[in-house]
Amino acid sequence: MPILLSTSLLLKMLGLAIPLGLAFVVLLQGRGRLNVLFSLMILAIALWNGGTFMLHVVEWAGLPGSKTWLTIALLGLLSLPLTFYLLALEISGLRAPEFTRATVGAGLGGLGVAWGFIFTTGFGIQVTTHPQGVLHYTLSNSLPLILSMIYAVSYFALAEGVLLWPMYAARQRTGQGDKQRNVPQSLERGGSRIERLLALGGTLVVIAGLLKIVPAIGQYPLDSALMIAATLIFAYLILKQRLFDPFAELNAQLSDANQRLQEANTALQESYLKVKEANRLKSEFVANISHELRTPLNAIIGFTKVILNEIDGPLSDMQREDLSAIYSSAQHLLTLVNDILDLSKIEAGKMELHKEWVEVKELVYGVMATTLTLVGDKDIKLIERIAEGLPPVYVDRTRIRQVILNLLSNAAKFSERGTIVLSVDRLVETVEVQDGYRPELFLLFTVADTGIGIAPEDIPIVFEEFRQVDSSLARQVEGTGLGLPISKRLVEMHGGRLWVESRVGIGSRFCFTLPFQPSPADRRR
After folding, report:
1. Does the predicted model carry a pTM greater than 0.70?
2. pLDDT at position 512, please?
């Protein structure tokens, strides 16, 4: 077999195998419109290479059927322009419906006419074989072939224009225009690279088709080499640029979105740190101011009490009444300042707990007597129920007494009659730990009253700073709305929790827990 013929056949076989393999890969990745159009273009290349391969074989071997294989080759060659143009339209995303419909319709008409020439006259092409195995083509009527090639070149030019024009237009746009598009830079760069490579592949296909009809060059297998080069470019687009990967664009968008999210998260963290620092400075300022207010208030209270005790001399009834009002107001103001100071310390992280082992009866000792003064002449019965054999707890005695007194004080404020019950008992709760859940023993403190109650929608409000439930009785009593929030924070600092159960018109139950820990004496036993 002559070397030139062997080279031609080898290139034709490669030009047939590579496109068929690519079409198979593309169809495996999905059956979207883009995949189908690309596969049609690749199959057109395969028809051209397969037809010319078989044409070489039958002519060299002297077998019949050369006209059939020539027809197949021409079908592939003349189908390439329109399939390439349709693929270019799909990739470029051209938004011109009237232009698209007109050009596609004209292309289908031109392809139909070209196919008609192929099946009727075969363009009058006669094929002969030289001794070296080179095929020689002669035309008996060149006009139909010339018209068909004009049609083919025109649609290849249209496809190139559709692919390359958006890139040219993009370069003409101002930087502000690009910003208004709001397109991720990664997608713009990737898209222009894909379009340039497709345009290059299409150009190689056009050159390959034109070379075949040039008598001086057509005898060499340059068309197959150029077709293979174009096919390899398409393979690069599929495998490297992942042209048909349905998730490629989505991944790029997610990457850009993730980058923007990280930038926003960084800005948010910086804002959080600034707000946290401002809140810390605010808490320190309030704590300092509150501390400075306590000194003169304590002096006012102390001197007022000295005068009320008539240490400096007797008082008239009017003087005693006025001094009692001063003493009561100063005590109320001191309570407010102490609440604000406590809250500021907690928020600033400067609240220190002085824990010690305390018997439960010591915690509640005296709080009922204090509550009795708050009840006054109301028809309210105070009841204390403490379970027997309760273990000691490791707490800050002063702060837990403050919590109990806050709850009893609120019960007395918002109850007009009935009962106020302070009870302490054991409670076993399931808590979450690193290796799952386990039961733990707590002490449960409950303050139950028969007061006005709290509506379900108002329950979250009672634990917010400077908030009070908006009811007629709640508006009549004094307070800043800090007692329950501070109590909740103090209980949580001890490792417990505070909650409320309430029904309007029936009463409320405020409960809090303290974790049980074995005392040193228990551990020794």
Report:
1. no
2. 95
